[in-house]
Amino acid sequence: MDKSTRGFLAFSSFLIALFLMALNFLVFPGSDWSFYTAILFLAPVLFFLLDGSRHFKLFSVVGSILVLIVLAAANLRETPDYLWVLFAVPAVLAWPLVILMGQRAASFFYSTFASLVLVLSYVLLNIYFEPGFPFSIFTTFAIMWWPLSVGISYFPRVFSIVATAWLILFFIVANAVTTDAIWWIYPAFVSLFWPLSVLLARHLLTYSIISTILISIFFIVVNVITSKETIWAIYPIFAVLWWPLSIYFFVYRRRQTKQKFI
Predict the structure, then answer these.
(1) Phi and psi at residue 184, in whole multiples of 5°?
(2) d(CA 130, CA 126)
C-alpha cells in the first residue's frame, strides 16, 4: 500500500471520527458516546499511518492499548462501582501476546501455557466478582479450543473424537450449573455424528447401521426422560430402520452384484 493510499484512508478515518463527534453534540447533546468511538477510530488511523501490514506487532500493541483505554473510560464513566473492564483485559492482551510470539504461538507448548493463564485469569475474576455463578466454565470451554486445535488438528480422526468428548463434557457441566432440566443429551447426540462421519464416511452400510443404533438409543432415552408413561419412541425408530435397509439392498447388494460380473 503506497503512502498516498495510506494517507487517504487515515484522513478518512479521522474525518469520520470528527463527524460522529459533531453529530453527538449537535443532535444528542445530553450524551457523549462519540468520545469512545473517536478513540476507537484512532486504531485505523494509526494502522494506515504506521503501515500496519508491515508493522503488525507494533500495531497489535497500540491497538490493544486503545481498546483497553476505551473500555476503561466507559467503565469508569458509566459504572464506576463495578470494574467490568477487568473481564476484557485477558482477552484483549491475548491479541498482542500471540502476534509478538509469531510462529511460536502455533506451538502446542505456548498455546497450552497461554490458554491456562487465560483460564486461570477468568477463574479468579469469577471467584472475586461473581462467586454465585461459575461463568468461567464457558470461557474455559472456548479458550481450550486453541491448544486442542494446535495439538491434534493434523489428525482429523483423533481431533474429531477428542473435540466431541470436550463438547459433551461442556454440555453436561453447563446443564448441571444452569438448570435442573436435562437438555445436554440433545446437543451431545448431534455431536456424536462428527467423529462417526469422519471415521465411517467411506463405509455407508456400517455408518447407517451404527447411526440407526445411536438414533434409536437417543429416542428411547428421550422417551424415558420426558414421557415414560407413553411409548412413542417405536415410531421414529421404525422410520429410521429403513435407512440401513435401503443402503443394504440398493447400494451394498448392487455393488456385490456388479463385482461378480466384472
Answers:
(1) -65, -25
(2) 5
Who's near 244: CB < 8 A, 6+ residues apart?
Answer: 205, 208, 209, 212
- Name the residue among 71, 97, 96, 65 with its Cα closest to residue 86: 71
Q: What angle do CA 64, 50, 63 make, to 5 degrees?
A: 5
d(CA 68, CA 122): 17
pTM of the full structure: 0.76
pLDDT digits (tens, 9 = 90+) for 111-132: 899 999 999 999 999 999 989 8
C-alpha cell at 138: 464457558
Q: What CA–CA distances, in Å, run from 2 to 38, 50, 51, 52, 59?
A: 25, 12, 9, 12, 18
**184 with 167: CB under 8 angstroms?**
no
**Per-residue model confidence as pLDDT tens digits over 183-203:** 999 999 999 999 999 998 888
Question: pLDDT digits over 13-57, tens only?
Answer: 777 778 877 887 777 776 777 777 777 777 666 666 666 556 677
Please give the single-letter amino acid code of residue 90.
P
Report phi then psi at 230, rounded to 5. Answer: -115, 125
Write the DSSP string, 60-85: HHHHHHHHHHHHHHHHHHH-TTS-TH
